[in-house]
Q: What sequence folds into this?
């Protein structure tokens, strides 16, 4: 019911926990306290319609930090637009690429910014590593948007059959392209490569992304709540 989150622990530099089952909160306070003691902080996620009561989570020391909006989108039905023709969309399998810290715009809608001591540099380092791990593992589904020979952004995904997990999208720090062009052009490319259904989630705080996906025909499903506990020495 509680385990070490390896990626977050590596990023943070000390152990970070993930609560994997809502039943963990039914334990008495002493048991919960003992299990959390080795960790700097912990995260719990659950569908909002199946989560423990908010006050029970609060009593356990977990604060609500985000809601993730889950959705599905039909990739072949993402509309075309004349403005998309100006962009090249190249996969890392065709032309290998990697990201450096500072290449992308800062992340403004991330729950990790609520953790004590987190800086934009720390957050950018986390996402740069994640991005490069995705590129290395799924190069054919990680694409780069290019305008007049200059990279405008990246859309990094992975696929199982015709289902595509739309994992991470980022505009370049100096991009002149719109976020909608990045998302729309990438998803049309995924459809061309055989993708049928795209699935992902984003923060409820990210209104621009919600508007983009809504305009492109996304169908939203039950949201996921995110709660965090922070130890006294974090």
A:
């Amino acid at each position: 019911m509680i385990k070490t989150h390896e990626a977050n622990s590596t990023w943070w530099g000390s152990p970070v926990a993930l609560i994997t089952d809502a039943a963990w909160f039914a334990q008495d306070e002493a048991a919960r306290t003992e299990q959390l003691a080795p960790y700097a902080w912990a995260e719990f996620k659950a569908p909002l319609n199946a989560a423990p009561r908010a006050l029970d989570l609060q009593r356990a020391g977990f604060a609500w930090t985000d809601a993730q909006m889950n959705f599905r989108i039909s990739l072949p039905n993402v509309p075309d637009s004349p403005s998309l023709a100006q962009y090249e969309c190249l996969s890392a399998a065709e032309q290998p690429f990697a990201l450096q810290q500072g290449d992308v715009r800062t992340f403004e809608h991330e729950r990790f910014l609520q953790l004590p001591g987190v800086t934009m540099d720390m957050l950018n380092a986390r996402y740069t590593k994640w991005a490069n791990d995705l590129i290395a593992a799924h190069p054919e589904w990680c694409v780069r948007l290019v305008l007049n020979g200059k990279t405008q952004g990246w859309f990094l995904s992975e696929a199982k059959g015709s289902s595509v997990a739309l994992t991470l999208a980022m505009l370049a720090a100096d991009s002149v392209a719109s976020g909608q062009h990045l998302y729309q052009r990438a998803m049309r490319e995924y459809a061309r490569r055989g993708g049928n259904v795209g699935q992902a989630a984003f923060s409820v705080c990210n209104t621009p992304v919600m508007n983009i996906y809504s305009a492109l025909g996304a169908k939203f499903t039950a949201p996921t709540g995110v709660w965090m506990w922070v130890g006294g020495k974090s």
